[in-house]
Design brief:
By secondary structure, the protein is an all-alpha fold. The chain has a domain of 66 residues. The protein has 12 helices and no strands. Helix 4 runs antiparallel to helix 5, helix 5 runs parallel beside helix 8 and helix 7 packs antiparallel against helix 8. The longest helix has 17 residues. The radius of gyration is 19 Å and the shape is elongated. The N and C termini lie far apart (59 Å). The model has no long low-confidence stretch (mean pLDDT 93).
Length: 221
Amino acid sequence: MKWINKISFHQNVRNETPNRELAKELYITNNIDGIKEISEYLFDKNKSIASDCIAVLYEIGYKKPDLISNYLNTFLQLLESKNNRMVWGAMIAIANISTLKAKEIFKNIDIILNVMKNGTLITEVWGIKALVGISSTDDNIKNKLLATIILYLENSRPIDFSSRLEVIIPIITTEKDVKKISNIIKKKQNELNEAQKNKLKTIVNRHNKSIETSECKIIVQ
């Protein structure tokens, strides 16, 4: 049986279970040929088939990003798709391989930032994860992107604030940046309900425990 026949569409299943099972089968066996076969259907005229295939690839990327890292150019191409499902699926895949292909992704940063600006919320969320991923590998990249990353945190909705902060925290490593984040938290706290405040404190406290110098600990009241 061809691998493509195992996707949800061909199994007549209207959920992601077959796609996840296929992804697991491919990454456990490091099946490069099977992954290549799935990648060949990313531009299929049948949107359901294409959507299932991007799902299989980013599911593989969660566990073994190296197995899909060679498809970066394809994922970048998909960011220009008119199908939102393909756009945010490609962004997830890019985020999953961001630490492996940081320099290559940074060369295409204008495309990614534009898609984040004009795309759906899920595209933006995974775009931020991609930015954080490439920033974590190179201080020069981080210095160029940190202001943009922090702006996304500052402009986030109260319901999303803590989750955004949790993504960004690993690259907040200097006293200067910590002060910026602490000031944003101070301003945002008035907009948060009790559950959101508690989540915020949990994230910050967990982060601070891993920091040795007090100057680099984030302040939350």
